[in-house]
Here is the input.
Amino acid sequence: MTFDEVLPKVREILASREGLLKALDWMVVNRDLNGRISLVVPDAASADEHRQGQLEELASTLESELGPHGLAADRAILYEEDREPVLANAPHYPLDRVTVVDRLLTEGRWGAVEGATEGAKRVVFYSIKGGVGRSTALAVSAWWLAQAGSRVLVLDMDLESPGLSSTLLPETRRPAYGITDWLVEDLVGNGDAVLDDMVATSELSREGEIMVVPSHGQDPGEYVAKLGRVWMPSRNQEGGHQAWYQRLDRMITGLESQWQPDVILIDSRSGIDDIASACVTDLRAGLVLLFAHDDAQTWTGYSLLFRYWAQTQVIRHMRERLQIAGATLPDVDTETRFDELRERAWDLFSEHLYDEIPAGAQEEAYWNFDDRDEGAPHYPWAVRWHRDFTALTSLHDRLAGIDPGQVRQLFGPLAEGIQRYVSARSVANE
Here is the structure.
C-alpha cells in the first residue's frame, strides 16, 4: 500500500458501509502530515452502542487494509461535536458521502479557489517552469495597457527571484519598500507604516500610468531573513488566525484603495509552490495566463495541476479563468510551431477541463471548444521570440523608445487579449 493507493482503498471500504454513513450526520477522512488516515465523526455517535461497534469494526478494517498508512484501530476514530473546526485552515474536498481533509506542511491551497474580485481586474502571469518570457511579457503588457490609457498596478510576486521591477523602473526610482517589507511588518501590526512607500510610477507611462510594487525596496536590507518570514500567518489580539495568502490579499486591497488602478498585473513565481498557489487561486484573479512551451515538462506539469483540481472538485470554478499563452515562439517556422502548441494545449484541456459531449446531446449545453476555436482558452495568445526582448535588465531602455508596431507584431495576441478582458469587465461594471 503506497500513498496513491490509500484514498481509493478508503473509498472502497466506505462504499460497503452505506448504512453507517447514512446514520451519521457527517464523516471526515483526515489525512495527517505523514499521510496516515483517521476518521472524524460526530460526538453523538460515541453514545450509541450499536454505532460505536460499527465504527470499531471499520477502524479494524482500516488498520489491516491500509498498512503503514493506517493507524492502530484504537486511534483511528476521533469524535468531535462540530465538523467545521476540523476543516478549518486545511485543504478539503468531497469524496462521495464524506469529506477528505489534507494536513499539509505548506500553506499552498491549490484545491481551493477564491471568487474573482469585483474591484480592479486582476491578471496573473503564471508558468509551470521558468525561462519562458513570462516577466518580459508582463512588462510589455503593462506598457501596452498604459499606452491605451489604463492605470496599471504591477506586483512582482516572484519573491524568490525578484527582477521584474528593474524592467519598468530605473534603480533611482525604486520605492523605499516592497512586498516582503509589508508582509514582515504586518506580522507585528506595522504594515501601514510602509504601505505609502511601496509604489513607484514608471517613466514609461504615456497616456495612462504604470505603478510598480517591487519585491523589495531600494535598499533590500536583510532580504533573506525577511523572505524566511513572509509565509508566516498572523494572529490578532483576539487570537484569530490569518494565513499569509489572506494577508497578501489584504495588502493588495489596501494598495488598490490607495492607488485606484484599472487593472492589476501579478507576476507569479513559476512551479507548484506556495507563492504560485496564492497568486493563481487565492488572490481573486479573473484571468490566469498559463505560459507554455511545447515540451514535455510544460504539459506534464499542467496535467498534474489540472488533475488535482479535478480531484478536489474545483475545476469548474477555475477553468473559465484560464488562458494559454504561447511563450516566445521561434522566428523560424513559426506557424508550424504555433499549430503544434495549439494541438497540445487542446489535448490538455480536452482531457482535463472540457466537458465530454454525449452522443446526440446539444453542444451548447456543455463547456467544450473546437481545437481551432480562436476564442477558446486553449488557443494560445502568442508571444514571438525576438533578441531585443530577451534580457530584463536591458528591457527598460528598449521600452523607452519602443516601436508600437513591433510590440504588436511580437506581443499583439497576448496584449490585445488582456486589453479585451479589461475592457469587457470595465463595461460590465458600469
Notes: The first strand starts at residue 28 and ends at 31. The two ends are 57 Å apart (CA to CA). The chain is about 40% helix and 15% strand. The CA atoms of residues 109 and 277 lie 6 Å apart.
